[in-house]
Structure formats: structure tokens, C-alpha cells
Amino acid sequence: MKIIIAGAGIGGMALAALLRRRGVTAQIYERAANFDHSGYMLGLYPIGARVLHGLGLMEDFLAASERMETYTVCNGHGQVIHTYELGRMLDGFGYSGGIMRGELLALLRRRCEDVPLHFGTSVTGFVEAEDEVEVRLSDGSTDRCDLLVGADGIHSAIRRQIAGELPDHETGWGCWVCLLRDSKRPPKAVVEHWGAGRFLGLYPIKGGLGIVAAAPTRLMGPRAVGKDGGKVKAHFAVLGEGIADVIAALPDDLGETFWWQLSDMRCKAWHQGHVALLGDAACAFLPTAGVGASMALESAAVLDDELGRTDSRFLSGALARYEMRRKPRAEAFQDDSRKLASMMMIESSELSWGRDQLMKFYTLDMVAKTIAQSLATPI
Ligand SMILES: Cc1cc2nc3c(=O)[nH]c(=O)nc-3n(C[C@H](O)[C@H](O)[C@H](O)COP(=O)(O)OP(=O)(O)OC[C@H]3O[C@@H](n4cnc5c(N)ncnc54)[C@H](O)[C@@H]3O)c2cc1C
């Protein structure tokens, strides 16, 4: 079966590596010029991490990541509401760790080094003819395959052709993402500060922390305020003196940071004819539950599993089963991340105070319920 993958992100690279393990060589087209742009951190729960076991990458992942041991939620004044033993709860299922996206991509590439990866080439569209797909590329050329996999992220061009323009689910918030190297903070601790109109998350990676600083775009302006890092620092500094090191690490020139509009989307159909959607292209995630990359890895494993039991003549059944196995699970996580977003991203001081009181009674089971349940459920 000839397979083309649009997008060398987490889902696309995982699928390429899994297919390669079975002796199937896909063609990958990636819009970016290289992997250098891939600079933000990802927390992987065992949901996604265990796919790395199957690829023989677990030891490499352990070496390149930092374990997520505890999860602490602070209020908007820096006082701790709760510290949860996250690692201990998930250990029964596998390892949970934080890694830079670029490093995870590099690990996956090790398992499909000889698979053609065409950087700087977008998939712009496709035409289905009989049992083949003609894939249109940004350099004006075309390629042909039995199966096109749209792993081209939240703004997927492949999805647009299947389902048209779909509305984003907007939170009205956006965030800046940057790194704090050589931090003196405990290395294995996830810490979040939930304030009114501001959220600051600190996530362990090897040799540092990933920082997510989120605020309503109404207050801070879309795409930050140009290069005015000072205004952003002042906005988050009120979260308490304990975060002075983090505020100092935020660059004055916000052009250096990664900006993320906090929205997601879901697509009704994950496949059409000989075209399938994978990862964020099918169902994208807010960062609040930290599962988007795990879901992309898991979907890649299920798609590979279904493709391994068929050939191009029976593709439609395999893609239908792939969608059945993945869509309800991914959407349950998406619902969960939306619920968490409505708790974490509160603008009013009164509501934020009420939320903090409720959080005092939130147990670890309640916080990580969907994750733990999903790990105990077969896919
Ligand atoms: C700042 C940030 C923090 C996050 N933190 C976490 C976390 O802690 N845990 C977690 O599990 N998830 C996290 N996520 C979400 C996670 O990154 C995504 O859910 C995951 O990467 C989805 O994988 P994907 O392969 O579908 O898409 P991506 O990894 O986004 O890859 C899509 C790829 O397609 C390429 N592309 C786009 N259009 C085209 C085209 N037309 N043709 C060819 N190539 C194209 C893009 O350049 C990109 O390389 C985070 C996301 C961000 C932005």
C-alpha cells in the first residue's frame, strides 16, 4: 500500500515510524523547512508514552525527558491550594514525562530515518480517482497514493477539503510559551498558578522548565502587545513573589516567544474515501489536560494497527474501524480539556475566589479521572 502523510508532526512521524517497523515506507510532506521550529514542551502521559515502548524508544524517551512527579495548583496570590502525587497515581500504567517537541520528533525520526521526508513542501489538496488519491503539492507537482493521511495539525488543509471551514472552539484566551533553563526549582514538579485573568504553568523538561503564560486576548491584545514584554511581565507578576525567577525569564521582546491562540476544534468525519485524518487535524486540544500529543501518538498506533490488517482493496472498512476506535475517546478527552479550561481560565476575581475554594476539595481522582479511566480501558 502506498501511503502519503501530510505533516511531520507528532502524529505523522509516529505513524511513519510504526509503518516502517512493519516494512511499509510512507512518503512524508512537511510544510516547515526543518524541525528547528519545533520549540515547545510536551507532557506525555502513559497514554502516549507507551506507544514509544512499541517503537523501542522508551529508554531514549526516559533519557531525553523529565519525570512529572507532582502537580501543584496555586491560587492567584501564590498560595498552594493542593499538591497531587501525579506520578505515583499513573506509575501503574507507565511513565509520565516532559520533553521538547523537537526532541520527540528527533526520537521518532530515528525509527524511520530512511523514510523520505520532504521538508518545505505543503500538501495543498487532493483529488480522489477510482482507488487512488492524487496529492497536490505546494511546488506545483503531484504525487499518487492508495492512502493520504492528513496529519497536518489544527489548521489542516486536508480536513478543510473533506469537511469545509469548521469553526474553532474559542476560549477567548491566548498564551505565550517560552523556556526557563538552569532553574533552581524542583525539577520534577508541575506547578500552575490560577489567578483571575491570568494563568501561569510551569512544566518540567530536561534541564529546565517550559512556561505557559495565558491571559484573555481581550485584556492583552491578540498576539501579545508587539514587542512590549514589560506589559506582559507586569500582568503576571501579581501572581506572587514566588514567581520572580519566571517573570525575569520572560523575554522583553515577545517576538522570541511562541504564541498560541487557545482554541480547539473537532471534525465530524475522520475519513473520506482513501483519505484519513490523524491527530489535531481530526480533533485538536486545548493544553489544559495535556493530552494532544498523547492522543496523536495513540491514534497513530490504532491507524497502523488497522492498516496492518488490510490492503488497499479493503481500506474503507479499516478507516471506518479506525474512526470508531478513536473518535469517542479523543472527544471525551477534548470535553475534559474544555471543562478544565473553564476552571483554569477565569477572568472575574469573585469567580476565581469561588473556584479556589472548590479546588480545596478536589481530589487527585477528580483531577486526573479521565486519564486514569482511559488507561484502564482497552482501545
Ligand atoms: C505550546 C503547546 C504546548 C502543548 N503542550 C502539550 C502537552 O503538554 N501535552 C500534550 O499531549 N500535548 C500538548 N500540546 C498539543 C500537542 O502539541 C498537539 O496536540 C500535537 O502536537 C498534535 O500532533 P499533530 O501531529 O496532530 O500536529 P502537529 O504536531 O502540530 O504537527 C502538524 C504538522 O503539520 C505540518 N503542516 C501543517 N500544514 C501542512 C500542510 N498543508 N502540508 C504539510 N505539512 C503541514 C506542520 O508544520 C506540523 O509540523 C501542546 C501544544 C502547544 C502548541
Bin the strand percentage.
25-35%
What's the CATH superfamily of the domain at 3-67 and 94-167 and 264-344, by name?
A: FAD/NAD(P)-binding domain
Distinct helical segment count: 14
CATH topology of the domain at 3-67 and 94-167 and 264-344: FAD/NAD(P)-binding domain
Bound molecule types? flavin-adenine dinucleotide
Summary keywords:
alpha/beta, FAD/NAD(P)-binding domain, seven-stranded mixed beta sheet, 14 helices, 19 strands, binds flavin-adenine dinucleotide
Can you walk me through this structure?
This protein has a domain at about 5-65 and about 95-165 and about 265-345: FAD/NAD(P)-binding domain (3-Layer(bba) Sandwich). The two termini are about 25 Å apart. The chain is built from 14 helices and 19 strands. By secondary structure, it is of the alpha/beta class. Helix 1 packs parallel to helix 10 and helix 2 crosses helix 10 (about 290-305). Strand 15 and strand 16 (about 210-215) form a beta hairpin. A 7-stranded mixed β-sheet has the order 6-5-14-15-16-13-17. The chain has a 6-stranded mixed β-sheet with strand order 8-2-1-12-19-18, with helices on both faces. The longest helix has 30 residues, at about 315-345. The chain binds flavin-adenine dinucleotide (FAD).
